[in-house]
Design goal:
By secondary structure, the chain is mostly helical. Helix content is 80%, strand content 0%. It has 6 helices and no strands.
Length: 116
């Protein structure tokens, strides 16, 4: 295990971020009614599929990279999910929210730079 990120490992982490974003969008789309009604929606099962694929990819990442480097990089999912929710669901991002997303992103860049 290493703290160094290869292009392949960084790509796998980015895939995990995209899969997590897709999962959350699917769950939001399917989140109406009771749990049983939600489970009857194909979009929820697509979200579960995203989760399962991400689990496999994330396990592979953790085989190669120290958790102290890999996990903070996953915080980019906060920014990705916020941006996706603004695009897909027209959710508003106020200036304070945008500042918080920016600070998280700066923190991720700092942590990611230690792994390069």
């Amino acid at each position: 295990m290493t703290t160094t990120l290869s292009i392949g490992t960084l790509s796998l982490i980015l895939f995990c971020i995209v899969a997590e974003t897709g999962r959350e969008l699917c769950f939001k789309l399917g989140a109406e009614g009771t749990l049983f009604q939600a489970l009857a929606r194909p979009v929820v099962w697509l979200g579960i599929l995203f989760w399962a694929v991400e689990l496999l990819a994330w396990t592979r990442v953790l085989e190669k990279v120290a958790l102290s480097v890999a996990f903070p990089l996953m915080a980019l999912s906060y920014a990705a999910i916020a941006a996706a929710s603004a695009l897909v669901f027209k959710e508003m991002i106020n200036p304070r929210h945008a500042l918080g997303i920016g600070l998280v992103t700066i923190g991720v860049v700092c942590v990611g730079a230690t792994g390069l």
